[in-house]
Amino acid sequence: xxxxxxxxxxFTCLFVPATLAESxxxxxxxxxxxxxxxxxxNKVAKYLxxxxxxxxxxxxxxxxxxxxxxxxxxxxxxxxxxxxxxxxARRLVPGSQAIAxxxxxxxxxxxxxxxxxxxxxxxxxxxxLNGYTFTFGSKGSTSGRLxxxxxxxxxxxxxxxxxxxxxxxxxxHSRTIAQVEAGAYQVGAVNYKVWETAVANGTVxxxxxxxxxxxxxxxxxxxxxxxxxxxxxxxxFTEKLTKVLLxxxxxxxxxxxxxxxxxxxxxxxxEPIESVATAIGLLD
Length: 284
Hints:
Elements: H1 3-15, H2 18-21, E1 24-28, H3 34-52, E2 56-58, H4 64-72, E3 78-81, H5 83-92, E4 97-102, E5 110-115, E6 133-136, H6 142-156, E7 166-169, H7 173-182, E8 187-191, H8 192-201, E9 209-214, E10 222-225, H9 229-233, H10 237-246, H11 251-255, E11 262-264, H12 271-279
Parallel strand pairs: 1-2, 1-3, 6-7, 6-8
Antiparallel strand pairs: 3-10, 4-10, 4-11, 5-8, 5-9
Helix pairs in contact: 4-5
């Protein structure tokens, strides 16, 4: 190839903005098993890449804390957080914004589930949990730990350590269901969406484990983007990203969350979560 033909290519490479060559990376809290997460979020990555016009990569993490750490360390610029992990991340990276949440996340709830061997039955009244073994989900989970612990302590009038004979942290909602179904723990707290999906898919034996109580509604999952996204990916990038998330209409993509749609979110929506976490000692 002649120098005359190569020169325009050299000129283009030298003057293409660095942000155009940068990969946009996101993660998600590991609320289900890893294979399910990869299936869900690799599809989301392809959708975002096509709509945003930049390379998009999904990076799995092993724990809720790891998702927050990746966000703090700028290893990811966007994350699908739960209510508590989102609050933690935004406190660590000031100026970061909650930009979209599932329609259902405005009115989220947790289910308390019990092994069929217990005498506990479904009720609108809070169950007497004294003396049982109990498993939460992840220590950083809103629906699997924060809100369940809040309602347990508020209704029982004492701390969880003084209520249960043994307390566990399963790590994710799928494992919570499996542990309670198997009898490894008598009672547990689970994200209602994961429970409903497991029932619909036939992956839980409802003759062995049942829902006994559900919490009042609270705000939960949301997409949070780092404060410096526009600086790295161009002016207006955050606004465009928000629009793309809100316009996610593909039933297959939505079913993978599962959510019926996405709606706008704001940091102020999660002030109740921050208040509860502070009250029970999960935030400084």
